[in-house]
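hiii, so i know i said id send this last week but things got crazy w the move. better late than never?? heres the sequnce for the chain we talked about at the cafe, plus the structure i predicted for it. fair warning i was half asleep when i ran it
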Amino acid sequence: MSRFKNEVAHLSAHVKTLRIGACLLFVLLLVLSAGWWRAPRDLTIHVPPDLRSGSTRKWWDVPPESVYAFTYYIFQQMHRWPTDGEQDYARNLHALSAYLTPACRAYLQQDFESRRTAGELRQRVRGVYEIPGRGYGDDPSARVKVMSDRDWIVTLDLNADEYYGAEPVKRAQVRYSLKVVRYDQDPERNPFGLALDCYSQPPQRISTPVTDETSVKTTPLEGATP
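okay and structure toks below
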C-alpha cells in the first residue's frame, strides 16, 4: 500500500513541477512579448553611395557621405522657388519643417518675413546647385567636419541663381557652412534622423572660381542669409 502512496506522491510532485515550469514559461513568454512589442519597427541604416567595396557599419552610425547628401538635398529643396518665392519659400518651410531644428526654423521664418517685407520674394525664381568639381567626392575631408557622433559641419559650394520673371537678378558662387545634428524625433516625417541647424558662419561669396581648393578666395555675403 505504501508503494502506491509513494507513487501517487511522486506523480503529484511531478505534476507540481510541471505546473511551476509552465508558469515560468508563461512569464518568460510575457517578457519576450513585451520586448518584441517595444522593439523598433524600422531601422534606418546609412549605406555609403559607393558600393564597389564592402562596408561594415553600426546601425546607429551616420557616415559623413550620408550627412553631406542629406544636407545638400534639404538645402537645395529649401531654396528652390520654381514660380514665386513668396509662395514657394513659405511652402518649403512648412513641407521641410521636420528636417529643421526649432531654432533654425524660427531663423528661416524670420528671414522669410524680412525678405517679403523688402520685396525680395514676389515673382522671384531661385535655385542652388553644386559647382562642378566642388562636390563631396572631390575633397571629402573639406566637405564634412565631424564634431561628434551627433553633430557635423557641412560645407557646400553652390551656384545661386535668382530671377525676377525672365531677368536674372543674382548669379553667384557661394560657400555655405551648415550645422547638422542628429534628430531622431519623428521617423514618420523625418526618416533620415538628421536636421539642419542653419549656418555655422555667414555664407561667403566665392570671388575666384578655381579648381584648386586651397586657392579659393571668399568674401562675406551681405547679411547672414543666402
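btw The beta strands are 124-130, 144-146, 151-164, 167-182, 194-206, 218-220. thought thatd interest u
miss u guys!!
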